[in-house]
Design a protein that fits this description.
Layout: H1 6-23, H2 34-37, H3 45-50, H4 53-62, H5 75-87
Helix pairs in contact: 1-5
Length: 91
């Protein structure tokens, strides 16, 4: 097919290029820009247990606080990012 891994690869690239600079490689808010922007620790149990997947989607697409919106991302990539964020839970 020639899409070099397809959606999972795009999710990985998107996380590294767009998210990890603030949220860090494992979502702890410890990326190089994280402290400056007070990036959230996405693995926190209290946050993970109350936030719904569609709220995470809205934040990714619409931005929140100092986080810019990423409204150009394809839906399947956004869904992959939500799964990745969920994987940080309790780490």
């Amino acid at each position: 097919k020639g899409d070099a891994g397809g959606t999972p690869a795009l999710v990985e690239i998107t996380w590294r290029q767009q998210c990890a600079t603030c949220h860090g490689p494992t979502g702890k808010g410890d990326g190089p820009q994280g402290p400056m922007f007070k990036a959230a620790d996405l693995g926190r149990e209290d946050w993970q247990s109350k936030v719904k997947d569609d709220e995470i989607v809205q934040t990714i697409k619409g931005g929140k606080g100092r986080m810019p919106k990423f409204d150009q991302l394809p839906d399947d990539v956004v869904k992959g990012l939500v799964s990745r964020i969920r994987s940080f839970r309790g780490q």
